[in-house]
Amino acid sequence: MPPFHLAMTAERQNSPTRLDVWLSANVSDLSRRRAQRLIISGSVTLNGGYARKSDLVKEDDLVEIHTDPAPKNWTALPDPQLDFETVYVDADLAAVVKPPGVPTVPLSPNEPGTLAGAIASRFPECATIGRSSGDSGLIHRLDTETSGILVAARNAQTFERLLEMQRNDQIEKRYAALVKPTGDRLPPVIDFPLGPTDRGGRKVRRDPSGTPATTLVRPVEEHGEFLLVEATIHRGLRHQIRAHLAISGFPIVDDPLYGNATVNEPGRMFLHATSIVMRHPNDRNRDLHPESPLPKNLAEFLKDLDFKL
Fold it and tell me: What are the domain boundaries of the chain?
């Protein structure tokens, strides 16, 4: 099998762009951190020569990614060094907290530093479970910048039951988001379909022909120009909460893709998955409600803004 090869010619842009930034904007699901890893590994060339992450991409430049193809079935690279919190565990599943800045799952078998790899190290039985290679039993994902609760199945039967519950809207996922309103009224329900908006599929937009999506929104507390909200979803599309809030006039603070609500602190997007509410997949008489409080830097930022939480 030949090596994987992706070649792209840069289109017209206002000014030259750093290679790592350009790659993350033009390759679907490729974060800037992952782009930097590819460049450092020597897998990226610019106009035929090996490149540095700070190299500038100009119009008509040729950017190529060369990697060996992944096998059809593979598991996440175990990563015992990545620390994460487990807030609930039994023989069937584990509820874990993803730190911010950590990819949920890997794009390739040899990618280090993912939550799925850390789960595979702590719970080896999860390694081969999932809809896709490298999922480590996770039934859903969080964006790299987002922190908070995720659930991983520890056996295949539980995984299938969790998926069925998710399809039937029986798993409720709650998030805390700090927004900087540009709209007049926070809608209690945001209900419109989403579809890809750019060539690389990195962002989503309101799309009548897209996938239906519903986000429930509840105001929690407001101070000055900031509003803390609780957003609740059941299934969840890629970037659903971020796009729904931004398009409705309530962009999340420091969202690099969907908002201009940028502040100096807390230095990361203010979106955290706080809790999951569901019945136990193998014991419908038992309710589960694993929770994760706001990380310290987010909580301190709210305190500095005189929020009472």
Answer: 4-67, 70-168, 173-273+298-304
Contacting residues for 189 by C-beta, under 8 A, at least 6 apart = 214, 215, 216, 217
**Which of 69, 75, 67 has its CA nearest to residue 133?**
75
> In whole angstroms, what is the distance from residue 295 CA to residue 305 CA?
16
The fold adopted by the segment(s) 173-273+298-304 is: Pseudouridine synthase (3.30.2350)
Which superfamily does CATH assign the domain made up of 4-67 to?
RNA-binding S4 domain (3.10.290.10)
Read off the tokens for 162: 């969790």
Largest CA distance in the chain: 61
Supply the residues annotated as catalytic. Answer: 143
Q: In this predicted structure, what is the pLDDT of residue 39?
A: 86
CATH superfamily for 70-168 is Pseudouridine synthase (3.30.2350.10)
pLDDT for position 48: 78
pTM above 0.85, yes or no: no
Mean pLDDT of 266-289: 94
Tell me the C-alpha distance between 265 and 189, whole Å. Answer: 29
Q: Would you say the CATH fold of 173-273+298-304 matches that of 70-168?
A: yes
pLDDT tens column, 199-235? 555 788 999 988 999 999 999 999 989 999 999 999 8
